[in-house]
Amino acid sequence: MDVNGAGLCAVLLLLLLLRGGAGGRPDGPPSLCDPRVMERFIREARDAERGMVGCGRRCDLPEAVAVPDPGVSFSEWQRMDVGARVRAVLGGHAVLVAAVLRARELLSDPQLRPTLDLIYGAARSLAHLLRGVVSPPTPTPTRTPHSPTPTPFSPTPSSPTPFSPPSSPHSAPPPPPPPPQVRTLSRLLGVHSAFLRGKVRLLLIDVCTPVSPPRHWR
Where is this region: Disordered (predicted)? Predict the structure, then answer.
């Protein structure tokens, strides 16, 4: 088994043990809502970042690699709905996984390979767990024998289509800024660590905090 496979198996085994507890059996896949799971990912990311201090020119990337913006504006975050936050985190993390994969392809130093393999395996595991937390399977509605069969909607010819004037070219939103780029492995691992500690952790607070039921006053 190669280093990447061994590192990935180690991460998954650890997560399953955390899920099962000290004496119980794991009753499903590990959940990021267990704070110990996310703390493990963050700790490994920070250890990898610290391990690259003083790496020097060995960590220079031959080309710039796009990364997500790890910064968080809390006022802007509060204005976003949960769906927008989910898209920001999943999209940013996908860019991060691609950046780590590209760094593995660009850097051939055998001393850097174990760190890159470990970070890439952990990033893929985190992507899988994130999808499980923020995209739960939608239950298929069951029909009873007495449930009426829904009829497809067909618009009537008498319903006129409202006229919408063409949009002015000046009203189009500005294009999004280009993603930031890094040229060193040290900076890439710093972005990776900051992204987990920032946007990913904030999203988990949103999706893992139980919503209190409404209180009925007498």
Answer: 133-183
